[in-house]
Structures are given as C-alpha cells and as structure tokens.
Amino acid sequence: MSEYQIDIGHRGKQRMTMEVSTDPSKGGIMIHVSPDRAQTVVDSLISQGIKPSTEVLFPALVNAGVDRNSLFDLIRRDSTPEAVCEVGFREYEATGQERCLLLTVSLLEDFGEEAWPVLKELAASKHPECELFVGLIANCDGVSSTQRADALCDLATHAEPVVRLTILDDLSDLSVDDSRSVLESLKDDSDDDVREEARQRLFDMW
Predict the structure, then answer these.
(1) 171: which DSSP letter?
(2) Per-position DSSP letters for 38-89, written without gaps between them
(3) pTM of the prediction?
(4) Is the CB of residue 204 less than 8 Å from the CB of residue 197?
(5) Which SS3 state, helix, strand or coil, does residue 100 take?
(6) In 10 A of CB 166, how many CB atoms?
(7) Please, what's the b/e burial string for 173-195 (b: 16 or more CB within 10 A of its CB; e: otherwise)?
(8) pLDDT, tens only, 64-96
(9) Cα torsion for 55, 56, 57, 59, to the nearest 10°?
C-alpha cells in the first residue's frame, strides 16, 4: 500500500491536493469520490500518470456529458467484468440512479464472452434488478445457446414476475430445443400471464 498526493486543481487562488492510498495488486487508485468531483479527479490522475480505478471512473461515466466515450473506453480497457458489476451495483445502491445499471449492462455487453461468469452468477443471484440484464444473458456473444438457456432457467425461478415475463421476450437467439427447455421451466409458473404465455409458446412449437 502506497500513499499519493494528487493535484486536483484550483479553488480560487488556492491549489488543491488530495491524499489517497493505492494498492498496486488491485490495479490503480482505490478511492471513492463524489460524482460531481469524479471527472476532475479522473483528469488529474491521468495527467499525472496515475491509473484511476473503476471506483473512480464509473461515477465519472455516470455523470459524464458529451465526452462519455473516452471514459467508457478507459473502463473497458483497464477494468474487469467483476469490477464493473461490483462498482455498478454499489453506485446504484448509493444513488438510486438506474443509469448506473444501464451503463453496467453496456460495459458488460462490450466485454462479450469474458463477462459470462459474472452474468451467470447474476442470473443465479435472484438480485431484484436482474430484469435489466435478461437480454444480455439471453444473447451474450460467444456463449453457447445451452449455457444461456441454463442461466435463463435459473432466472425462471426469480421472485419477480416481471423478470420471468422478460425472459419470454428474449428467446429468439436460442436453439429450438433450448427455447423449449426454458419454456418448460415456466409452464407451471405461479403468475397467470407467465404460465399462459409459456404454455402457448410450447403448444405452438408442436
């Protein structure tokens, strides 16, 4: 663990600095800053040759204006799917902004197959916000139809009917057999709409 003093600009005529700690094993500065200061800290870190962590970059991305692509690319290049998911959910829980989760989905989608272990774990977690990730789980690039169907079957046991209804809208990229296995897991659902739609889809397959 090392200590850094970073230059974060001026306030009036006074130069401001911030003392932060970094753990090299985690790849960069591991601090949390308020969203309104995140972009300033990111710019200052980069200009001083210090690699900012996902914990700093993500709040800056959430609140970015037109210059969003450079932050997205930085996270995509230097972070991992695990870090993106962890920080994205943490920011959502702290701020209540659904945008945090939507950006998490976008970043994980860009990781492609590399994000699959995280998505598979999320599907099994029964997290309340899984609805936003159903489409990505169902269509993740580089992952077999059977693996995606298995994850959707995990989601089919989710407590929220809206998640199970969303699954029914995202089966088109699966094989016929894998679609059938997901529908079989929903045909006796406790929710009338889910159950009836699953049964109708199965009937239409014959």
Answers:
(1) -
(2) HHHHHHHHHHTT--B-HHHHHHHHHT--S--HHHHHHHHHH--HHHHHHHHH
(3) 0.73
(4) no
(5) helix
(6) 20
(7) ebeeebbbbbbebbbebeeeebe
(8) 654 566 677 778 888 899 999 998 998 899 889
(9) 80
